[in-house]
From TrEMBL:
Keyword Nucleotide-binding: no
Site (Participates in the substrate recognition with KAPA and in a stacking interaction with the adenine ring of SAM): 16
Molecular-function GO terms, alphabetical: adenosylmethionine-8-amino-7-oxononanoate transaminase activity; pyridoxal phosphate binding
Residues binding pyridoxal 5'-phosphate, per UniProt: 114-115, 258, 321-322
Name of the protein described by the UniProt record: Adenosylmethionine-8-amino-7-oxononanoate aminotransferase
Post-translational modification N6-(pyridoxal phosphate)lysine, affected residues: 287
Chief subcellular location: cytoplasm
Compartments, as annotated in UniProt: Cytoplasm
InterPro entries attached to this UniProt entry: Aminotrans_3, Aminotrans_3_PPA_site, BioA, PyrdxlP-dep_Trfase, PyrdxlP-dep_Trfase_major, PyrdxlP-dep_Trfase_small
Length: 438
């Protein structure tokens, strides 16, 4: 009998994997924090999902309230166009987003995915500058180490050298040096010492010089606040985000915060910009927005930005996906946000402390260069590229699903993970690295 994995091989592309690459694992079931997986060699197991399905399934799988939200909306209508129409799930979700984000963010654009929300943000910035009489301001400045998505505009503001998109012809943008790293202790960013502040000052001087040299052609600064995700799970000093806010203001640029990975509590604050105490002009969110049920993202902007668009000749933000504000996605997103209670957010802090303690053992391994945890993010950085198939399988044997990349074995557990789940994840990561890399 042909297995599901055998039917998949050579038929389906998987993310950043060849058609004849390593065989994927088949998902048989998912519930709570656990996945039931099968391999093509007959292995089967129930394991803790250490990845939250690429950081989005923060409430785990088959959550009763999220399931109910989907069922209730299906019984009404699953989709209607958003052109000329509106509906309760979209309005309710937008109200929730405005209520939970910094106060100046008052207007919402609902997009299909995180990458698309970045595309919309870039278009918005160009329209904003044109509305203020600067049509030549069409470029962007990003950070080295950045990752913002796989669509063309988003690719252009990803790291042009160490990112994943050097092959493709995209607009050439300006890039600032990677900000100085933050020290993390017990899942939190440590207060800066004198050396940290000197590093921030030196970085700021470089950043200010680069932006000043090109400001007359720039529309916005695009940044993943405090934590760069696919760029290496790299945590940097929050003071750098505050400096970018000042630099943007000095030169009349918008500050676009990409919180697709960090939003909704992942780094220990509701949004990562909270570590810096600033508000961006544009905020993009996705991934955890629907609790991992349906693809959806959102862009929020300030009243000043929205007013400029309204005063422009076009008067509208020039984007409009077919599935914009899909009712099913909006309904489950609204239910997901309602689950982000203070108790749930405190659990993120607890996970950070637990990860920091439980992963500490990995720092004694010969192959490990660094161990760090920030909020519900735990990272073990090796001194060599990870043998992904071998480490993945070894971690599964020890009870956790991980998806390493580059030299990193990392985890972003669901917020509903308990202490035993976190211990299992950390133990599986440490044991897998020890067995494969020593």
């Amino acid at each position: 009998m042909t297995t599901l994995v055998e039917r998949d091989r050579g038929l389906l592309w998987h993310p950043y994997a060849p058609l004849d690459g390593p065989a994927p694992y088949a998902v048989v079931d998912a519930s709570g924090t656990r996945l039931t997986l099968e391999s093509d060699d007959g292995w089967r197991g129930d394991v803790v999902d250490a990845m939250s399905s690429w950081w989005c399934a923060i409430h785990g799988y088959r959550h009763p309230e999220l399931d109910a939200a989907v069922h209730q909306q299906v019984d009404r209508f699953s989709h209607v166009m958003f052109g000329g129409l509106t509906h309760e799930p979209a309005v309710r979700l937008a109200e929730q987003l405005v209520a939970m984000t910094p106060d100046p963010l008052r207007h919402v654009f609902l997009a299909d995915s995180g990458s698309v929300s970045i595309e919309v943000a870039l278009k918005l910035a160009v329209q904003y500058q044109a509305a203020h009489g600067f049509p030549e301001r069409r470029g962007f400045v990003g950070l080295r180490g950045a990752y913002h998505g796989d669509t063309s505009g988003a690719m252009s503001v990803c790291d042009p050298v160490d990112g994943m998109h050097a092959l493709f012809p995209v607009a050439e943008q300006r890039f600032l040096p990677r900000p100085p790293a933050a020290r993390v202790e017990d899942g939190r960013i440590a207060e800066p010492d004198a050396e940290d502040l000197r590093a921030v000052a030196a970085w700021t001087a470089d950043a200010d010089r680069i932006v000043a040299e090109h400001a007359d052609t720039l529309a916005a600064i695009v940044v993943e606040p405090v934590l760069q995700g696919a760029g290496g799970m790299y945590a940097y000093r929050p003071e750098c985000v505050a400096e970018l806010r000042r630099i943007a203001d000095r030169h009349g640029l918008l500050l676009i915060a990409d919180e697709i990975a960090t939003g909704f509590g992942r780094t220990g604050t509701a949004f990562a910009v909270g570590h810096a105490g600033v508000c961006p002009d544009v905020l993009c969110v996705g991934k955890a927005l629907t609790g991992g049920y349906v693809t959806l993202a959102a862009l929020l902007c300030t009243g000043d930005v929205a007013e400029a668009i309204t005063r422009s000749p076009q008067r509208a933000l020039l984007h409009g996906p077919t599935f914009m504000a899909n009712p099913l996605a909006c309904a489950v997103a609204s239910a997901s946000l309602s689950l982000l209670t203070p108790e749930r957010m405190r659990r993120v802090d607890e996970i950070g402390v637990e990860l920091a303690g439980a992963l500490a053992k990995a720092s004694t391994l010969d192959s490990v260069g660094e161990v760090r945890a920030l909020g519900a993010v735990g990272v073990v950085a090796l001194d060599r590229p990870v043998d992904v198939p071998a480490v993945t399988r070894a971690a599964l044997e020890h009870g956790a699903w991980v998806r390493p990349f580059r030299n990193l074995v990392y985890t972003m557990p669901p917020y509903v993970a308990d202490a035993d789940d976190v211990a299992t994840i950390a133990g599986a990561i440490t044991s897998a690295i020890a067995e494969v890399h020593g």
